UniProtKB/TrEMBL annotation:
Residues 13-299 form the ABC transmembrane type-1 domain. Residues 572-609 are annotated as: Disordered. The chain crosses the membrane at residues 12-33, 48-73, 122-144, 150-167, 240-261. It is a multi-pass membrane protein. This is ABC transporter ATP-binding protein. It holds the Pfam family ABC_membrane.
Length: 609
């Protein structure tokens, strides 16, 4: 925690000087008050009285000025520390592998950045200054009290150890409750994020679960109310006891002074007694504040712990110390004896001994049943995951040795789940190339066969796409994603089931955009439903992470193996006679032989998409 403040040592040193000066100035007032009561007023020395009054006023002014400057600098430092923390957590999350986000709720991540760091604001903004300020004030006040009368000082400090012990107990209790409270806030934030998104609203309403979702949120909120009350009240009676005792201390001091006088001890002057009580009351505020700061720091430890859990996460995918930068990228992709497992304890790896070569400008289609490892294979090329065995190379260089910017420039990904920001069409496209001109954006949209639709909108390229692009249809979103990739112009393209969720007419429009995008690029197509599989230079059939077959469309059909079975199953499914009544993998059929009877009808009937 202390290392967070290291870059601001100079400003903190200035705060320390201001705190010290303010403490020294503030303890001077009681001594001037003693002189007023014991000397200036009894002896009628109006000149001395005027000087002492002016001194007390000047002391108040200086203390106020020092306090304002101290607050300004300390608040600035605190906010900069919070900025550094937010940025560090965000940057750390940007480096985390894709697997981290598949197992972490979005609301949980948002809560760590917003609620946990926001909850530390008071601590990082004022705690350090408050600690130094109050500690200095306490030390200066105790020294001044000893200078006035050591006996009264002993009476004033008798209960201090008890107060420290109470505050530590309270701090530990609040830390425990705060940990529970932040977890509950994260759970509630996750519920809001999931259920109040466009997809969540659609699901809730179409399933008739709006009321049950509201009740679930009400229960989450009710648990948070209980934790907030417990956090606020934790140790409140014990801290109130400290306040009562400290407030009653002047009466004890008067009583002690009276006893000393009644038993024949050394007399304490009225000025000394009033000055001492003034100091003791001055000690009350920083002492209680110091104890409260201790409690607050204990509470903040729970928040820091949650933040450091993210900052301490191991980053699996890192850029090498001396990364390779490629100026010109041909696009030759090779997977050499590739093994991959999401979990080292996995009984069977997701990919096992995969060897694939896609020459620059070539095309590869990857098909197979669900769970066979198709998408995983595609994600290894842009290094969304790292292989656990073998290697993936781009132009002969292991992708793990490439600079991140080179890899991002080289490989473009278009997936089934198209993500669009809640921004204009132009801003969504420009995300791929921030300095793109309006002409370049329009050219990319034309190539993706989406320009005419955008131009027909009232605001054209300034049209807001809505949350996750819900103002556009699935096919339109896919074409926007393709236009975005065209604008980036990567030499290697990964198409991850880009048309599997589209109807036939929309698929045709998107396929035209894909054809434009794929031209002249190294293309790896992962597909359940592909009308262009037959046109790929090479088709690989995956089964349980291993390559079951490979070859061209015609070669695999002649072989009569798994690929041919998929073709037959597809033909039967489209004719309504498939085993599950629906297509699993849609690939192009071969031209039927003359006189052959196809699954769709009489001789020579061609049912290709």
């Amino acid at each position: 925690m202390l290392r967070l403040f290291r870059p601001y040592r100079g400003r903190l040193a200035v705060v320390g000087l201001l705190v010290g000066a303010s403490s020294l100035v503030s303890v001077a007032s009681p001594f001037m008050l003693r002189e007023i009561l014991d000397t200036a007023i009894p002896e009628g020395r109006t000149g001395l009285l005027s000087l002492l009054v002016i001194g007390m006023i000047a002391t108040a002014v200086m203390t106020g000025v020092f306090g304002v400057l101290q607050t300004l600098i300390s608040t600035t430092v605190g906010q900069r520390v919070m900025h550094d923390l937010r940025t560090a957590v965000y940057a750390q999350l940007q480096r985390m592998p894709l697997a981290f986000f598949t197992r972490t709720r979005t609301g949980e991540v948002q809560s760590r950045i917003a609620n946990d760091i926001g909850g530390m604001q008071a601590t990082v903004t004022s705690t350090a200054t408050s600690l130094v300020s109050n500690l200095t004030a306490v030390i200066a006040t105790v020294v001044a009290m000893l200078a006035l009368d050591w006996r009264l000082t002993v009476v004033s400090l008798l209960l201090l150890p008890l107060f420290v012990w109470i505050s530590r107990r309270v701090g530990r209790e609040r830390k425990r409750i705060t940990t529970q409270r932040q977890k509950q806030m994260a759970a509630m934030a996750a519920t809001v994020t999931e259920s109040l998104s466009v997809s969540g609203i659609l699901l809730g309403r179409t399933m008739g679960r709006a009321d049950s979702l509201t009740r679930a949120f009400e229960e989450e909120s009710d648990r948070l109310v209980d934790l907030e009350v417990r956090s606020s009240m934790a140790g409140r009676w014990r801290m109130a006891t400290i306040g009562i005792v400290m407030a009653a201390m002047p009466a004890l001091l008067y009583w002690a002074a009276g006893l000393a006088l009644g038993t024949g001890g050394p007399a304490i002057s009225i000025g000394t007694l009033v000055a001492f009580v003034s100091l003791q009351q001055g000690l009350f505020r920083p002492a209680v504040s110091l104890l409260s700061t201790g409690v607050q720091m204990q509470t903040s430890l729970a928040l820091f712990q949650r933040i450091f859990e993210y900052l301490d996460l191991r980053v699996d995918i890192t850029e090498p110390a001396e990364p390779v930068h490629l100026d010109k990228i041909a696009g030759d992709v090779r997977l050499e004896s590739v093994d991959f497992a999401y979990d080292p304890a996995q009984r069977r790896p997701t990919l096992d001994g995969v060897d694939v070569t896609v020459p620059a400008g070539g095309s590869l289609a990857v098909v197979g049943p669900t769970g066979s490892g198709k998408s995983t294979l595609g994600y290894l090329v842009p290094r969304l995951y790292d292989v656990t065995g073998g290697r993936v190379t781009l132009d002969g260089v292991d992708v793990r040795d490439l600079a991140f910017d080179t890899l991002a420039r080289a490989v473009g990904v278009v997936s089934q789940e198209t993500y669009l920001f809640h921004a204009s069409v132009a801003d969504n496209l420009r995300f791929a190339k921030p300095d793109a001109t309006a002409e370049e954006i329009e050219a990319a949209a034309r190539a993706a066969h989406i320009h005419d639709h955008i131009a027909s909108l009232p605001d054209g390229y300034d049209t807001l796409v809505g949350e996750r692009g819900y103002r556009f249809s699935g096919g339109e979103k896919q074409r926007l994603a393709i236009a975005r990739t065209i604008l980036r112009d990567p030499p290697v393209l990964i198409l991850d089931e880009a048309t599997s969720a589209l109807d036939t007419a929309t698929e045709h429009a998107v396929q035209r955009a894909i054809d434009a995008l794929s031209e002249g690029r190294t293309t790896i197509t992962i597909a359940h439903r592909l009308s262009t599989v037959r046109d790929a230079d090479q088709i690989v059939v995956l089964d349980a992470g291993r390559i079951a077959e490979r070859g061209t469309h015609e070669e695999l059909l002649e072989r009569g193996g798994r690929y041919a079975a998929l073709v037959r199953r597809d033909a039967g499914a489209r004719a309504g006679t498939g085993p599950d009544g629906g297509p699993d993998v849609v690939v192009g059929e071969p031209e039927p032989r003359a006189g052959a009877v196809t699954a769709g009808g009489g001789p020579g009937h061609d049912r290709r998409p």
